[in-house]
Amino acid sequence: MYISLSTRRQSSRLALLATSLGFVLICLDVTVVNVALARIRASLAIGSTELEWVVNAYTLAFASLLLTAGSLADRFGARLIFVCGFAVFTGASIGCGLSADATVLVTSRGLQGVGAALCVPSSLALLGAAFPDAHARAKAVSIWAGTAALALGAGPLVGGVLVERFGWSSIFLINVPIGIVGIWLTLAHAPDTVRHEARCIDLAGQLLAVVALSVLTYAVVESGRRGWTSAPVMTGLVAAVVAAAAFVVIEGRRVQPLLPLALFRNAVLNVCSITGLTLNFGYYGLMFAMSLFFQNACHYTPLETGIAFLPMTAVVTVANVVSGRLTARFGYRLPLVVGQSLAALGYALLAFLRADSSALAIALPLLAVGTGVALAVPSINTAVLAHVDSASIGIASGVLNTARQVGGVVGVGVFGSLVRPESSDVASGLHVAVMLAFTMTLLSLLTVRLGVAKRASSVDAGAS
């Protein structure tokens, strides 16, 4: 059957809309929940440890399954996996919105993370199939990534408005109609991808990865309530090390491993993974802690909290554009160094924050952190693209994104163990947390100087 060029173009645009809707919801849920934490805590009568799990259950499932989700999309087709992921995410959002206790909410958040992990790799594959022309595909990917950046930036403000007007359940239930539209658009307009039925799924590697990340997260989250030297926390840390060691051994023996260990011979990938982990550690940890600080120490409403986050989140899109232009002209090392330096400055300034600090004293450090992180993130992606073999870009991207998500999980756990909403002095815990982020950022800057100092030419950046 003949299909006109205009019809194909319209289907491609609608496929882009579908994948963008999925990515928007996934990114929105990373930040939108932070402004609802105080209302969730009061409504469900839960403690700070459960609040950390509300945030981390999502990110943990997302981080654990990203690599396997890419393999599933290769084997069974990107459209099927994307629709399944979108359906799981939408159904889990209903569970979140109707939760009457912490157990149901945390479980539903974990299922949201499963759906998100299934959607992200397959959405990129769908864009590749919908836009076979390289120029059109690059433009489509730019739009797809841009909508995600806008979602991340708008998350706290959108969450504040929804929580203030309709209650905390609304930040989850609003996903449902959008999810239904996205699934319909995908089935109606997104082309399927070639299925590689010979691709094996590394179940043992996946299981060990989930175990290692889960027990590590458990140990970090529980440290605030039980203490770092308590038996459950120490057991969790030891179990994480054992599971990680077993993962390395098994992956070294696999013909088709979940994570080819040979990738880690690439110094630039190692440095970028460390940097990505550090960036998310500070950014997501700070969002969690500052939400508690704003609502418990400063007594802000959810809407006021969302507005207070704007200096940190609203600059994401602009800083991403600036980072791309700096990279094209000077190479990726400049925005990487400048970005981390700005973030470090922001963390240092936050160490002087008090409940009665002026709006400017709050906004300037958050602006520095938000701008710095947004400048640095595109440059680590550019560096990986420039220094990883084309046949390994997919898995290398998976490694980088997994490292970033793990950083976010650990960041929320560590910041949450230091900033307790039931404490009479939330600011003191915040000061310790931001100085830890400051120290880690400086160490990351050192690895950048050692690992990519001679590999950051503008030619590489432009080629990417």
UniProtKB/TrEMBL annotation:
PROSITE patterns: MFS. It is found in: Cell membrane. It is a multi-pass membrane protein. The chain crosses the membrane at residues 54-73, 80-100, 112-131, 143-162, 168-188, 200-221, 233-250, 262-286, 306-322, 334-353, 359-386, 398-418, 430-448. SUPFAM superfamilies: MFS general substrate transporter. Pfam families: MFS_1. Residues 15-456 form the Major facilitator superfamily (MFS) profile domain. Gene3D superfamilies: MFS general substrate transporter like domains, Multidrug resistance protein D. Keywords: Cell membrane, Membrane, Transmembrane, Transmembrane helix, Transport. The keyword Heme does not apply. Belongs to the major facilitator superfamily. EmrB family. This is MFS transporter. It comes from Paraburkholderia phenoliruptrix.
